[in-house]
Specification:
Number of domains: 1
Order of helices and strands: EEEHEHEHEHEEEEEHEH
Helix content: 10-25%
Largest sheet: 7 strands, parallel
CATH superfamily: HUPs
Number of helices: 6
Strand content: 15-25%
CATH architecture: 3-Layer(aba) Sandwich
CATH topology: Rossmann fold
């Protein structure tokens, strides 16, 4: 099975978030970079699928030349090929990003396009849906379980944008959680699927995997920017609510005050 997984280079933020003085970007001076957790799970899912069914996993990202590092991280997890849609580092909106991805994967022969449910930085939820629309493919989002089915494919028409191999499964059963239950979608391949963190537990890269990824050649493509009529005004960090600690006392002398506080909060009633 031929699978393409789209990932995004995002800042590795462990503390307070700061923006640049011009209010246009997140200040990443002291930050490292990684891929979104949902997308790491998407890569793991793709690798597990090809381990069972055969095939190859292509990992694709749009970003600056440094984003090749994140592609190599995913190659170390078991992906087979890395493709960088190289930009000057400026943030592309969902319209332009989806257009660039769709143009590259349109004739790639992929049977499954996997995305993370949303990027960890922008949280836009848009790119998988926009890619599926541009390619005329079915799309399911928020998936936590993915199975495959063969057969004739049922009565649903098969999209002809991305041809499926003769021996490949023809359908997927994609499950997602909804209000304490599970919704299951029966979808013909090829298809676009966005997965959520928790669909699997991503593996740690092995030493041979790291060495293989270090030697791998990253294919680089310079996509054309599709104007989307969106303009960023500024970024701001929302004001956080102040936190206040009150010392009720020390030792047994604090017990009455603690009981009064619990009663005030309604815990004892």
């Amino acid at each position: 099975m031929e699978i393409c997984v789209c990932v995004k280079r995002v800042p590795m933020v462990g503390g307070a978030i700061a923006v640049t003085p011009d209010g246009q970007d997140v200040d990443v001076t002291m930050s490292g970079f990684t891929v979104s957790p949902h997308e790491e799970c998407a890569v793991e899912e793709a690798v597990q699928i090809t381990e069972r069914l055969g095939g190859t996993v292509t990992v694709l990202t749009l970003g600056p030349p440094e984003a090749a590092d994140q592609l190599r991280d995913m190659l170390a997890l078991g992906a087979h090929r890395g493709v960088l849609l190289q930009t000057d580092g400026a943030e592309w909106g969902p319209v332009a990003t989806a257009a660039a991805i769709a143009e590259v994967v349109r004739n790639g022969g992929y049977e499954l396009l996997l995305f993370g449910n949303e990027a960890a930085d922008t949280g836009g939820y848009q790119v998988p849906v926009r890619v599926s629309h541009l390619l005329g493919l079915p799309c399911v989002t928020g998936i936590k379980r993915l199975d495959f089915a063969g057969g004739s494919g049922g009565s649903s028409p098969r999209a002809n944008t991305l041809p499926v191999g003769e021996d490949a499964p023809e359908r997927i059963l994609a499950g997602r959680e909804y209000r304490g239950a599970e919704e299951v979608f029966d979808v013909a391949l090829p298809a676009v699927v966005s997965v959520k963190e928790g669909i699997n537990l991503p593996r740690y890269p092995s030493l041979p995997g790291r060495l293989r990824a270090k030697r791998a050649v990253i294919e680089t493509i310079e996509p054309a920017f599709a104007a989307d009529r969106l303009r960023k005004e500024r970024l701001r960090v929302p004001a956080s609510s102040g936190k206040r600690a009150q010392v009720l006392g020390a030792g047994s002398d604090a017990v009455p005050a603690l009981v009064d506080l619990l009663d005030e909060l309604g815990i004892l009633s």
